[in-house]
């Protein structure tokens, strides 16, 4: 496929996006259900295509190019496909993120301003090798009325192609072109340059990859590059609680971005807290490193300066003793990635200081960092996690794939009436009301 | 000032931003009031400095480099300073955009998630030659708890310097470094490169200038490059109303981005509507151009292809006859700048189609495009108008200078409890409640 073709596809998505804004909730949900049905009906062919990817992946594994984990993630099965179909059906069941009136304000008699939730437009996505990612991203985009450009990992190319075709065939009632697939690496660069046509980019993958995207496009990017999260055990902590939280935050699932990477311990409780904590971690095979003051109390390896800026993503943890709450805040400000930070303390004022002072998407009091997740937050399906501060922050649900539009209903209103010497004042009164064309609510 | 100094200033702003998040509403409002007082107390020196700018401006005017309008905008007076001080006091009076709990959700018993409005952090601004712009931007930033980098036009350098000094001296109670001034052009480029330190850019000025900023930074930009707005007179329009709206949208104040640039007229009403409309515009010295079908009815100059993409910003207007509502939508989609579009019609369904189909920040029914403005919308002081779709759209008030943070209050909650075979289900119940550290609301 040439880059001209990639450009063409983005243009098609752009046209479809305009029509999609007029597609009803029912039509979108029907289309989602027919995607689910089609995946089940087409399972034999999908598994056959997936077989090709897995075979190629196993060759790469033997050649030492791929890891076993990557090959495992590639693999689909009948039951995996069923759960993918279920996921798509559950997206159909979610509350419609579109059309809601977010606020209504009377500006003057018969002049009413409504803020209405609408799709963003065209969303460009680049994602990792799990073939279910393609289906999930397409489903969330459709639900939120957005056109989507899908670029999956080349390792999953056979699976992605047939899943994409299945989706397109199942959604003939939806404006043609709403979902576009691109496959070659160069086409990603074509996409990155189309900032007039693509409204938002959602890359998923390694930190390096997301950084590359951010550095090479003018399109807004929603994503996160790193998750360096901390748990701070305060002088006023319930130490039993602290031990359980710090353990859960690392061990419950260490490979994810909301797992803790550095444990900070107030010096007043270090001697009492560390021995038991370290024993518990070591029991779970967590590889520990500590600074000098940690090593005065327990026998662990020494940290280097790099440890404080490292996302281990594994059963590894660095520990540091700090002199004060202020020191903990300073350390996190210097080394955190604005993702999720947790304090364990029984002192509400100290918790408040920690939570207000830190610039992070999520700040927790007496809870494990692992709660930072769209599903746990009750946002429905998670689109991604953002460590940026603009538009959407932290775990992002369907709402993050919407924006708003102002709808003003008037009755021949002129600005001249509200200007100059005899200016009529605005009333500016909020009211409860849903926009519907031509009907004024008050 | 060297670029190292510019870098240093941005770093100082970044430190101040973290402290600013803890400054109370009362402290911020007190500081705003002391800015207003200081401007009044310091008026003699400010006017003296301004004199220098005006003198230099007049020399440039004689040399044909500046326009009279630019020199006029530069000029301060005792009464202008008073109204600037009043503006700052009115910002102090506005509702606090910070600290509000935007939503509260129980995840499980004693585990409560709050979404809280917080400042964005460091905002970089570049603005035009009016010296009151510096004060307005500084006041809005302070009110919203953000640190700010101020870069004004060089024409106003003397005025800006003394206003900046006045502001800094008046806000000694606010964390030092919260407002930074940069002056040289090269320093703008230094700022554009500091995407790790600056969270948002708000450029104001010409379209070319805003485009330059967008093309040369990874920092999110909130602004608008063009305002090509349309009024569509539908076949079902009340033609008297249409005439008044189309007139107001152009003539009430033609130099601004929400003024209409192209009038679209449905062919069914063109013969009846155009003669009166054209006479009314010509009475007000509006220079008119029309396409062929317009010129079949009225005697105006011919449009060229460029007219449809031109923001006149003056008493000029292009007129086009369209065959249908769909044609009007198509024309606006091709040529509009996603700013503000208005339909005049008595048919609610047709209004709805127009408003839903167009991808613009503001879509109006039976009202002048000139209403698209933060003050008229009731947003309080306007930070700017955004034609982007991410974060803030259309007129942006103080809310656009905020983001949110998730605060989770737990009681030793672990993710392990909610995972695996005996997973406890989440309750995910929204409730009304304000976050306060350590106190759970339910």
Automatic annotation (TrEMBL), chains A, B:
Its EC number is 1.2.1.41. It holds the Pfam family Aldedh. The gene is proA. GO terms for molecular function: glutamate-5-semialdehyde dehydrogenase activity; NADP binding. This is Gamma-glutamyl phosphate reductase. It is found in: Cytoplasm. Pathway: Amino-acid biosynthesis; L-proline biosynthesis; L-glutamate 5-semialdehyde from L-glutamate: step 2/2. Residues 3-287 form the Aldehyde dehydrogenase domain. One of its GO terms (biological process) is L-proline biosynthetic process. GO terms for cellular component: cytoplasm. Belongs to the gamma-glutamyl phosphate reductase family. CDD domains: ALDH_F18-19_ProA-GPR (cd07079). It catalyses: L-glutamate 5-semialdehyde + phosphate + NADP(+) = L-glutamyl 5-phosphate + NADPH + H(+). Catalyzes the NADPH-dependent reduction of L-glutamate 5-phosphate into L-glutamate 5-semialdehyde and phosphate. The product spontaneously undergoes cyclization to form 1-pyrroline-5-carboxylate. Keywords: Amino-acid biosynthesis, Cytoplasm, NADP, Oxidoreductase, Proline biosynthesis.
């Amino acid at each position: 496929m040439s880059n001209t073709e990639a450009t063409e596809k983005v243009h098609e998505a752009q046209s479809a996006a305009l029509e999609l804004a007029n597609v009803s909730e029912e039509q979108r949900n029907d289309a989602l259900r027919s995607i689910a049905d089609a995946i089940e009906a087409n399972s034999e062919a999908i598994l056959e295509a997936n077989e090709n990817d897995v075979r190629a992946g196993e060759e790469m594994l033997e050649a030492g190019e791929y890891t076993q984990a990557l090959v495992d993630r590639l693999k689909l099965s009948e039951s995996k496909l069923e759960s993918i179909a279920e996921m798509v059906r559950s997206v159909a069941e979610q509350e419609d993120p579109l059309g809601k009136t977010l606020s209504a304000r009377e500006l003057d008699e018969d002049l009413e301003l409504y803020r209405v939730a609408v799709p963003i437009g065209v969303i460009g996505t680049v994602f990792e090798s799990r073939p279910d990612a393609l289906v999930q991203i397409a489903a969330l985009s459709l639900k939120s009325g957005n056109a989507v450009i899908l670029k999956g990992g080349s390792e999953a190319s056979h699976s992605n192609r047939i899943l994409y075709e299945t989706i397109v065939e199942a959604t003939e009632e939806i404006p043609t072109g709403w979902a576009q697939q691109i496959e070659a690496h160069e086409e990603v660069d074509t996409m990155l340059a189309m900032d007039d046509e693509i409204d938002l980019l959602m890359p998923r993958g390694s930190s390096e990859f997301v950084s590359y995207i951010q550095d090479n496009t003018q399109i807004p990017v929603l994503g996160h590059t790193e998750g360096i999260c901390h748990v701070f055990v305060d002088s006023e902590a319930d130490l039993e609680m602290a031990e359980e939280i710090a353990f859960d935050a690392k061990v419950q699932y260490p490979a994810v971005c909301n797992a803790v990477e550095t444990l900070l311990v107030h010096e007043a409780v270090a001697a009492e807290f560390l021995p038991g904590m370290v024993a518990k971690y070591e029991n779970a095979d967590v590889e520990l490193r500590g600074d000098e003051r940690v090593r005065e109390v327990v026998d662990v390896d020494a940290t280097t300066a790099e440890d404080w800026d490292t996302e281990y993503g594994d059963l590894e943890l660095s520990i540091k003793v700090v002199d004060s709450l202020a020191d903990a805040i300073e350390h996190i400000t210097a080394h955190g990635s604005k993702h999720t930070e947790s304090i364990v303390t029984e002192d509400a004022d100290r918790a408040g200081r920690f939570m207000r002072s830190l610039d992070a998407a999520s700040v927790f009091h007496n809870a494990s960092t692992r709660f930072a997740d769209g599903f746990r937050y009750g946002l429905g399906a998670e689109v991604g996690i953002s460590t940026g501060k603009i538009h959407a922050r932290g775990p992002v649900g369907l709402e993050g794939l919407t924006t708003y539009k102002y709808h003003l209903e008037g009755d021949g209103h002129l600005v001249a009436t509200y200007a100059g010497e005899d200016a009529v004042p605005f009333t500016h009164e909020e009211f409860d009301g849903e926009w519907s064309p031509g009907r004024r609510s008050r």
